[in-house]
Amino acid sequence: MSEAAPQNDPKSSDRADATAVLLRLRDMGHIAYFAGGCVRDLLLGREPKDWDIATDAPPARVREIFPRTQAVGAAFGVILVRQGKSQVEVATFRTDGRYIDGRHPQGVTFSNPEEDAKRRDFTINGLFLDPVNDLVIDYVGGQADLAAKVIRAIGDPRHRFDEDYLRMLRAVRFAARLNFEIEPATATAIQVHSALLTRISPERIADELRVMLAPPTRVAAWRLMHVLGLLTPIFRFVEVPAGEPDDDRTIDRLFEKLPAEPLPFSLVIATAAAQWLWWASPAGSDIRRSFEKPVIAMLVGAVRKSLKLSNDECDSAGQTLEGLHPLLADDPPTVAILKRFLARPTAGLSRTLLAALNEANLIDESRYSMLQQSLAEMERTDFAPQPFITGDDLTATGMRPGPVFRQILDAAYDAQLEGRLASRDEALRLAKELERTAVVLPRQKK
After folding, report:
1. Contact 346, 323 (CB under 8 A)
2. Which residues contact 111 (CB under 8 A, 6 or more apart)?
3. Domains delineated in the chain
4. Rounded to two decimals, what is the model's pTM?
5. Quick check: 312 pLDDT over 90?
6. Which Gene3D superfamilies match (predicted)?
7. 3-state SS record for 48-73
């Protein structure tokens, strides 16, 4: 099986189509087995998502045998074969050359099944299956490790991680997904090599995290990354306070209470929320103050920089987190604050996070109950009406545009939301009064 990115993979295959490809290779005189992850999942009683094939047929020969192919990695012996409705990955048995960039071999030599198994990452991924004879072919002890629920590097784990730094995150991903332990020598090698993750592109690391920090693996994956020392090189631009973060497992508690279904922008919400708790907990700071805009901007910005995430992803996650600050501030939120919150495009995500914080006992339960009741009442009203006045209305009255414009418009809209204004004329009178106050007060201070 290839070590492709875990994000949306353009290839997909079902067993029937893959079996047809495998049998055709055999009919043409070649060795062909199912390989890697599909064998692992099948032996674990899981339904494989893809069925990959390993063969002694060189890439050119594969393309001769099958009329519809795509050379996605011919230099590494990988051909996609279109069969039925599937794209089946067919890889030639190979031995990898020297790795020069911490991700890819400089070249490959086509070889045999045993050598091909030994160049793979973990024993549980080094298995072959002969479906004709219903025979598992195991050169690396993968069956024993499946039975023992162990993630073990093939050969010397230090060598495996020197070859491909991203294998450290793959070990965490498999352990979290399968509920396996990482065996001691492999875990130690990850800890020793953890700093090498800074040499991997942030975007590639983000791809792995998007899979790991989604349900149901987010708690186990975060815990493993913490224990193995991977969080610091991953979030290299986050300023971590002195002392061990998350000693009381507050992050685990929060992650456990997040919804079981994937959330939009789940990667940034999960990492920013975790980093926020990481930053807040050791200092013993008031959790409510930690949702202030400068703190959230700092943490989301650090996550963005560490993982090279999109502006849209980070902005939406930041707004999700910032939306909680007015709800959790010392003073109870006003009607205007509650209505403005409901009008935010990220209000739904903020409320999801708010519920998780409450269930994890990280905010005051009485405040949460009050918020739930108040928000439910507000939702039955017209909580986002069109403002009575705009900036153009202020300009038409002779006001000069400037910083005070925004303050006046906000104050007028708050009064409208709270029912203290009933018309455009009343809003304009309030605006003129606020303008006079804004002008007079600074002059009196002089």
Report:
1. yes
2. 93, 94, 95
3. 1-146 (3.30.460.10), 149-234 (1.10.110.30), 248-384 (no CATH), 391-445 (no CATH)
4. 0.82
5. no
6. Beta Polymerase, domain 2, cca-adding enzyme, domain 2
7. CCCCCEEECCCHHHHHHHCCCEEEEE
